[in-house]
Structure formats: structure tokens, C-alpha cells
Specification:
By secondary structure, the protein is mainly β. 12% of the residues lie in helices and 43% in strands. The protein contains two helices and eleven strands; from the N terminus they run E-E-E-E-E-E-H-E-E-E-E-E-H. The strands form three sheets. It has a five-stranded antiparallel beta sheet, covered by helices on one side. The protein is globular, with a radius of gyration of 18 Å. The protein starts with 9 loop residues before the first strand and ends in an 18-residue tail after the last helix.
């Protein structure tokens, strides 16, 4: 029997020194390796899986997945999520903070994308772009108070239809936006 854990629902992890509370949406898994800070070298640890998270206090914690003794989950129906946390959950992404602004970063068909609340001439609106290409962002016309599930459906619908925001041949405004 496999036990499937939704990374977006990890609320705390048990390590050898005790329980660590996890900031919502920050628990991720992936290959674990050490990289040199100045010479660019890395030490591959045999393809060992690892994890990374941000604690509620803001500390970054990373390590081999084998160092996790247990995880505590917050069930979706029991947890009140912020709109950004809900979007991360629906897009199977993670919340990143860069330059003081939060966004949801997720991967689709091997490409990274992000969604965030951005300032527009209409006020705060949900914007969508390929990671690192915010100048070509799509504005779906959804404001901060609109249901997040509509934003997630619009994003995934466009991706499945082959639209890539910020790429040649794509518009910067969604046809349904005001």
C-alpha cells in the first residue's frame, strides 16, 4: 500500500531534534546535493531524494528525505488557506517570496510558471507568466476577491490549449479581461 502525501498539506515535520512547524506551501521534495558557493562545484549524494521547507520563524531547512521521521498534515477541509495558499494547492505549486512579493511557482509540461497578485491600472489582479518573464504576464481580469478556483482553471485551461504567456504569439491580456 502506498501512502500519498500532498506536500501542500505538510504542516510540520519531525526531525531528530523534534517537531518543526512548516510555513504553508513551502514544503518541497527533489534531488539532494551540495553545491559549492564560490567554485560552482557540487557533491552529488547518489541521487538521494531531499526536502526543503521554510519554518514559521522564516528559517530555511533542507536535508535528505531519509532524515524525516514523520510529517503532520493539515487536511484541506480543516485548514483555512489564504488565496495564495489555495492557488498553490490547486496548481500543485509552491509559494515563493522574491523582492518582498509572494507568488505561486508551478511546473507544467517541464516548464516553470508563476501566478501572483500584481498591481494593474484596475487595482490588484491575478497575473500569470512564464517564470522570470513577468513583462509578458497575462491579466485574466480576476481581482483579489475573485474565487481562486477560477484563476486556477483559467491558467490550466490556457496551458493545456498550448498558450505560453510571455512567448511570441501570445497576448498580454486574456480575451475575457475587462
Amino acid at each position: 500500500m502506498n501512502l500519498h502525501v500532498n506536500a501542500n498539506e505538510v504542516a510540520a515535520v519531525l526531525l531528530a531534534d523534534g517537531w518543526h512547524e512548516v510555513r504553508a506551501g513551502t514544503f518541497v521534495t527533489g534531488p539532494f546535493a551540495f553545491a559549492g558557493a564560490t567554485d560552482g562545484s557540487s557533491a552529488d549524494i547518489g541521487g538521494q531524494p531531499g526536502f526543503a521547507l521554510t519554518t514559521d520563524e522564516g528559517a530555511a531547512v533542507m536535508g535528505p528525505l531519509s532524515s524525516l521521521l514523520a510529517v503532520r498534515l493539515e487536511a484541506a477541509q480543516d485548514q483555512e488557506r489564504t488565496p495564495l495558499q489555495e492557488l498553490a494547492y490547486r496548481l500543485d505549486g509552491r509559494i515563493l517570496t522574491a523582492g518582498g512579493a509572494e507568488s505561486v511557482r508551478f511546473t507544467h509540461a517541464g516548464e516553470d510558471f508563476e501566478v501572483w497578485l500584481g498591481a494593474t491600472k484596475y487595482g490588484p489582479r491575478w497575473l500569470f507568466a512564464a517564470a522570470g518573464e513577468r513583462d509578458g504576464a497575462v491579466d485574466y481580469g480576476f481581482a483579489e476577491k475573485d474565487p481562486v478556483d477560477q484563476v486556477a482553471r483559467a491558467v490550466m485551461g490556457d496551458l493545456k490549449a498550448g498558450m505560453r504567456p510571455g512567448r511570441p504569439g501570445t497576448a498580454t491580456d486574456h480575451p475575457d479581461a475587462d
